[in-house]
């Protein structure tokens, strides 16, 4: 089981401006989905005890097409992930306008992914540590709205994929909440999205599917399709490095705007 040190300190607040009604994501938790949902059975009740009132359901995560362009930086810091290799420090930033999502909770999920024994620290080349506001850092991992994604990525109109641009690792909130149709496990897709984009920051380029029915390399553009491979989020599945041939697929994203923006 993975362990993440609890976060400390206060949240860096940046003034937010008024936003239009946005789109909604899963309502299973304030972070937009837990990696380890509880399967504990309900406790038995005495027939003489009053039935407790049900707890209110958390509000679904929602976001506009374009956020404010300002961010909340997750407070505190994590333990160092990995035991050997070059240390890179990173911040986690969530764009204002993404509502009902815990900034600290999202940061915990990112640390959980990057610290996984099948993740980038498994090979001994890298150590990673999340740091808080005002701390020296080597890159920032953003959770951004679809239109802001285009700004941060410095790319042509897309609004669908995530990216890495210099020291900005950008996760599109639409993909974080909704995944892609052929990744039936949203948690696994989130593992992939973070691993893939951070992989670019670590110097890795795109790779191709190595053969029909084989697991996709982490650096394959799995958001654009599996191209005969099966889903795989990890660079070190079962603790061993796994790669494919160097190359990339054409950037063909859905033209239906509901794939990147779903008004409530």
TrEMBL record:
Residues 61-227 form the DUF3152 domain. Residues 1-29 form the signal peptide. Keywords: Signal. The keyword Translocase does not apply. The keyword Signal applies. Residues 26-66 are annotated as: Disordered. Residues 34-50 have a biased composition (Low complexity). InterPro entries: DUF3152. Residues 51-61 have a biased composition (Pro residues). Pfam families: DUF3152 (PF11350). It comes from the Bacteria. This is DUF3152 domain-containing protein. The lineage of its organism: Bacteria, Bacillati, Actinomycetota, Actinomycetes, Micromonosporales.
